[in-house]
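Batch job 17 of 40 flagged for manual review because the log was empty.
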Amino acid sequence: MSALTTDVIQAIKRRLDAATFFSTSPAIPVLTVDQKDITTAITNAAKSSGAFVLIDVAGGESDSADIPGPYFNQGNFQVTISELVPVWRSRSGTTPGAHEICEAVCRLLHQQQALNASNAPISG
């Protein structure tokens, strides 16, 4: 993955991790595909939490074939919400369903500028 793509993924992760919705009990792990061992991270999140969010790159487009890549005119990122109902709903207290988690993600990311670790807009 390019540094710019990784920056956008990390910006989305920081935004979600900072939200009270994801950090309160029960906490909802936010995973990214660029983690060293994503398969183990997904397995651990599913077993321990029962619900998690996965940030990934869905694709990108370039209008010039001769540009060394990956330089995209348009990048598509996706956030996948996973809920293992028997594990997630067995937790004490109120647990939001996958649709509620999805609504929270949309609310937090809608019309937000992706920022780097220094809180400057990501561009490239």
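Reviewer: the log was empty due to a logging misconfiguration, but the result itself is present. The mean pLDDT is 86. Unflagging and moving on to job 18.
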